[in-house]
Amino acid sequence: MFTLWRRRAALMETTAEAVGRTIDGYLRADFPWYALDEAFTGHRWLTPPGISAEGTTEHGAVGHGDEPSVKVDDTPDTRRFTIVVSVAPRPLRRSTDGTGTIEATSVATAAWLAGSGLLSCTWPTHMERHLREDWLEQQTAIAWELADDLSGPGWSSLTLPVNGEPTPFRYRESEYGWVLAGTARGAHLGAYGRGISAYGLGLAVVKDIAAHDG
Predict the structure, then answer these.
(1) How many CB atoms lie within 10 A of CB 182?
(2) What is the sign of the dihedral through the CA atoms of 185, 158, 79 and 74?
(3) DSSP characters for 29-60?
(4) Where is this region: Disordered (predicted)?
(5) CB 44 within 8 A of CB 67
C-alpha cells in the first residue's frame, strides 16, 4: 500500500513551472480550498498544487506564518507555521489510458500528505546525507502506516470549527510538530504545523484563492 501510494503521489507532485503559475492549478480545481479562518491575520501563501498525470488538480495547501525552510543554516525551532491541505474527494476509478485503476482518496490521503509535508520541512539538516536519506525513508514509511490507521493509538480526537461548525479530526503530535486530518464539505482536510498550537484553530473555505498567491 505504501509503495502504491508513493507512486501515485509522485505522479501528482509537480512544480509551479510544470503548470504555469502556482495559482493556475488552484483555479482549475473542482473542489473547495480550505485555510485558517479570518482569526489568523498573518502571512499566507500557496504551495505548488498536486496535479495528476491527466492534468487534474488533486490537492494543494495554504500556508500560514513563516514559510518552512530546510536550509542548513536555518533553525527549525524558530519557524512558526500552519499548513492546511485540501484533497479532492475521488472515488476508485479507471485510469485514462485504461491500463488500471486509481485508488480513491480518503481522510488517510489527507493525513499522509500532511505527515509527509511536516517531514519535508523539519528533517535534520545537519545529518550526513546517506543517514538523512535512510531517516527520511524510515519516517515516511511510519507516516504512511499512521495515516492508514487513523483509529489506532497513534492518534487522538480533536474537534475544531470548520466554517463555524464543530468538526471532528484525528490528531497526533511528535517532536517535529503536529498533524491532523478530517473531512469537511467538498474536500478531505489535512493540516500540519510547528510553533503554532492546533488547539484553538479554526478553518474555513477560502473565498478568493487568488488573494493567497504570492
Answers:
(1) 23
(2) negative
(3) -SS--EEE-TT--S-EEEPPPEE-TTS-EEEE
(4) 50-74
(5) no
Please name the amino acid found at residue 170.
Answer: R
Q: Could you give the CA distance from residue 15 to residue 46 in angstroms, rounded to a whole number?
A: 12
* Residues 147, 108: Cα–Cα separation, whole Å: 5
Q: What percent of the chain shows pLDDT beyond 70?
A: 76
For residue 22, the 8-state DSSP code is: H
Please write the tens of the pLDDT for every residue from 109-133.
999 999 989 988 776 656 666 676 7
Long-range contacts of residues 3-9, Cβ cutoff 8 Å, at least 24 apart:
4/103, 5/103, 5/109, 5/112, 5/144, 6/140, 6/144, 8/102, 8/103, 9/50, 9/112, 9/113, 9/116
Q: Which amino acid is at 94?
A: R
Grid coordinates representing 214 are 504570492
Q: Residue for cell digits 501515485?
A: 8
Domain range for 144: 2-212
39: phi then psi, degrees, rounded to nearest 5: -65, -25
pLDDT digits (tens, 9 = 90+) for 56-69: 999 999 999 998 76
| Among 115, 89, 2, residue whose Cα is nearest residue 10 | 2
Average model confidence (pLDDT) across the chain: 83
The answer to whether 31 and 186 are in contact (CB under 8 A) is yes
Q: Give helix then strand counts, H and E, for the chain.
A: 4, 12
